[in-house]
Amino acid sequence: MEAYTISYHALTILLTLLFISNFHTTLASTSTTTTEYYNTYVKTACNSTTYPKECVKDLYPLASKIKANPQNLCSTALSISITAAQNSSSKISKLSKNNGLTKIEVAIIKDCIVNIKDSIDQLKQSLNVMGHLGSSNLKSQINDIITWVSAALTDENTCTDGFDGQSVSKTVKDTITKSILSVVWPTSNALSLIHNHYS
Question: DSSP letters of 106-140?
């Protein structure tokens, strides 16, 4: 009888361990499948953007946060654009403190800072509306967002227009160009994603 009891307990423990092992394997498998699905969603969405390589670089690490949700995808893309614009504004503002700048360079930098700030405001407006999309006025909201992001992109590109026909040092030109590209890429991609998922 005692041997039977021990065998019964041993069998119970063995079955419990097998159940736990299978449960964890199933969870791990489900988790892997979900992660792969989220990653594939981001890669597929990025393939249709203006700068797919930059899009994947920005959004792929955030795939689990996006959760294959168009609203999350577009909101995340806009947030990345805002951060990039803020970083760009900071770099160009530091450039304005350099010694030996010409009057033309000072004016170009000043105009560029204003344009970037306008771009940040428009992107923030877009992000705010994207976070409050409603079925009753969805079309109007998306139209507003597209208008603002398009205007933000125009403002960003205007920064380098100031170089046309002007004598500008390589340092000023390279710093502004590099800073602006770091904003134009994510902003253009955000606009593509919004168009592709809502237009």
Answer: HHHHHHHHHHHHHHHHHHHHHHHHHTT--STTHHH
Assess contact for 191 and 158: CB atoms under 8 A: no
Residue 165 banded pLDDT, cuts 50, 70, 90: confident
Task: Give the global pTM.
Answer: 0.82
* Beta carbons of 126 and 78 less than 8 angstroms apart: yes
Q: What is the mean pLDDT of the chain?
A: 86
Angle between helices 103-130 and 70-95 (to 10 degrees): 160
Provide CB contacts within 8 A for 157, sequence distance 6+: 180, 184
Q: How far apart are CA 27 and CA 184, in angstroms?
A: 41
As a whole number of angstroms, the longest Cα–Cα distance in the chain is 101
Residue 87 zone, left/alpha/beta (φ > 0; ψ -120 to 50; rest):
alpha
User: Tell me, what DSSP letter sits at residue 165?
Assistant: T
Lookup result for tokens 């797919």: 52
Task: Compute the Cα dihedral for 166, 169, 170, 171 and give only its sign.
Answer: negative
DSSP secondary structure letter of residue 60: G
The closest of 84, 79, 91 to 124, measured between CA atoms, is 79
Report the candidate in 68, 186, 167 with the shortest Cα–Cα distance to residue 127. 186
Give the torsion sign (CA, 82, 118, 187, 164): negative
